[in-house]
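Entry type: protein chain
Record version: 2
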Amino acid sequence: MEAVGVVIAVGPGLTGRQVGDVVAYAGNPMGAYAEEQILPADKVVPIPSSVDPIVAASVMLKGMTAQYLLRRSFKVESGHTILVHAAAGGVGSLLCQWANALGATVIGTVSTKEKAVQAEEDGCHHVIVTKQERFVERVAEITSGQGVEVVYDSVGKDTFEGSLACLKTRGYMVSFGQASGAPDPISLSALASKSLFLTRPSLMHYTAKRDELLETAGEVFANIATGVLRVRVNHKYPLSQAAQAHSDLENRKTTGSVVLIPDGVDL
């Protein structure tokens, strides 16, 4: 659902895209595991020369997700304190780097000490290792009982209720994934106790319009070019070895981003 490529043909009457352009897309339609793909012209965005195409390929979904979470689902500003679960994950890493650059105090949760090191490198001011500490108690400690303005939660069932408890009055609970399973249902009264906001957003709804897509991708590319965002492309596989790439992912043999490269491609 994300790829970078060189335009080899355009439809009749199309303006704004031409043969030879390096472009990227993220989202539907599926089918990026291919040497060639036909895409709607309004779904692709140009890659600036300042961004390595392989880096762009690795960051489209994660980077645009980080943009809409930080800038539109809840607008993080200097002075805010935020909680990012899975802070060493693909999106979590970018959230921490970007939020730190915006002037926020970033609290991150990770599962191991090794991941804590990466989270600190990525701008986390406070890292909580969940196998050793209870994150609700630590967040209360770190914030002197005040709580955080927003929680970015991609874990789901295991963290959902605790995340609500970490919020300050009128705080925002942004649930954008459920790696541990779907959260248990909650009643509206659970939000009423602190007038909380709850949202379950999707990238596709934040990039549905052409101008939104271009703005979202443009901010990601600009932050990569200026060094605000560091993208770890730690593994590259030939497209013919896609099955091996999946096997390595499933067996936790990879870190950072994985990119599939068709044979003979010279970007």
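Comment: The longest strand covers residues 167-175.
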